[in-house]
Specification:
The chain is mainly α and 156 residues long. It has 3 helices and 2 strands, in the order ββααα. It is elongated and about 110 Å long.
């Protein structure tokens, strides 16, 4: 009987290989025969799997029928470095596009108001200014294409 570590909670798990499909962790109750528990699981690869011919699995923390499953021998927490890297990337992306980090100073305004304010700051003047410019342009066009009436000519 082999001793493995649940990648969800870090509890020691005793099972013989092959791990049964319905096996769960005694401590957290999560499925053991799942991609997150597999030695092939790697988010740096396509479909998060080093096994190139394995069928794609959508839900990586639920049990599945993958025939390439082999329980990971990695210590618990080995994947936290990848999680920290992903969290850092998400935080930078949110800061770039005005996510949670940028919205801290403007917590009293709604997301749509914040978006409108940012849009107005990008294009200067804002929506009202754009509307007045559009009205001005429309008037110029109407003036260009309006029929001119000749005062000497009677149109009756």
């Amino acid at each position: 009987m082999s001793v493995f570590v649940c990648q969800h909670c870090g509890a020691r798990v005793r099972f013989d290989e092959p791990i049964p499909r319905e096996a769960t962790c005694d401590q957290c109750g999560r499925d053991l025969r799942a991609c997150l528990q597999c030695r092939h699981y790697d988010t740096n690869y396509n479909n998060a799997c080093r096994e190139t011919v394995a069928d794609p699995v959508v839900d990586k923390d639920r049990r599945n029928f993958c025939e390439y499953f082999s329980f990971s021998t990695a210590a618990f927490g080995a994947r936290t470095a990848q999680g920290a890297r992903a969290a850092d990337a998400r935080a930078k992306l949110a800061g770039l596009f005005g996510g949670e980090a940028a919205a801290e100073g403007a917590s009293d305004e709604s997301p749509s108001d914040a978006a409108r304010r940012k849009l107005e700051s990008l294009f200067g003047g804002g929506v009202k200014d754009a509307q007045s410019r559009a009205d001005e342009a429309r008037k110029k066009l109407e003036g260009m294409f309006k029929k001119k009436t000749d005062p000497d000519r009677d149109e009756s």
